[in-house]
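Protein modeling request. Please complete all fields; requests missing the sequence field cannot be processed.
Requester role: graduate student
Desired output: 3D structure, token encoding
Chains: 1
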Amino acid sequence: MHKYLPPLGWNTWNTFGAKINEALILESADAMVETGLLDAGYEYIVIDDIWSLKERDENGRIVPDPEKFPHGMKYVADYVHSKGLKFGMYSCAGYKTCAGYPASYDYEWIDAKTFAEWGVDFLKYDFCYHPSNYRPDLLYKRMGIALANCGRDILFSACSWGAEHTRQWIKETGATMWRSTGDVNDSWPSIKALSQSQLQFQEYNGLGCFNDMDMLVVGMHGKGNVAVTGCTFEEYKTHFSLWALLNSPLMIGCDIRNMDDDTKKILMNKDVLAINQDPAGREPFFINNEVQYINENRGSDDPFYKNYQLDYPMIAKYLDNGDIAIGVFNFTDDTVSNWLSHFPIEQLGLPIHSGKKLELTDLWTGEKIVSSNGMVHFMEGFEPHTCKLFRAKVID
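Delivered output (396 residues):
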């Protein structure tokens, strides 16, 4: 996988929280290989917060909790690497982590060296308990330059939740990805809220520094650290489709040792993953942006138009080979009427007089649709909480 494409992997937090240990990490590394997740492109095994003792040692180094990790982190990293995977860990830009453990403020160079010696390949870097009188960009630059000089290639995952105008300065820090939201939980309302909050930030999302919409909850089914109600298969599919289309890193949050067939079907859809991992890494854009124009320039007070783009977003992304990824989403609790189930290909740069059409392949069903008279009609009615995700080819 190219270093500068959205990372794919698994993180302990969503399901296990504080209940992490050496055996869990080794078993999850085994599962990543045995289930086919590694072959599908998922390569990072990431330990989140609550892995260390509460105090540093006499040399200022963070100490792994010996009860949880009796053989130390180098042992865990070596095992993960032996499986053909990469190993990730967690720290924070503040005085302590979000759970109250030692963090890296003023210890950036010591910690970067320690992580490199352990064989770390990925660092998730949180934003709790940071000094309020210190510029946030400098907090991330401090760790960014320390990692760049630690002697090992460590992917820098900035987790500042979009606070302090993160999007305006994060690319300066060397981060490959930047968290743009608060924490997700395993419920449709959380997925919907995070999705709609991120639609406005796509101009800050592209090759080299991707908008991280938080970890996936696909397959959690109401069990685990961030569990609430769980979601239906269609809701998980919508969640995964939007994250993939919007270039978000795809970090699995369920227990990968015990995935059901539906979970595997979603997480290992090679065609959807290819949209996320497209080598061009281009920014997505709205197809229904004429509504944004109405809102901003014509002052429409009609609530339908004000909510249309958020409730029924139509989003496209130009792909490296000339194809176009197209996603259409229904975040409402209502079935969408037929007149909303279409869009003009002119919004994709294909006017009628170009003589071109689009052949769309549904990446979940395999169904093919060809545009006619400059329009794509993709279904009769559009059920609540569902989506359509297409790969479109320009044809004569």
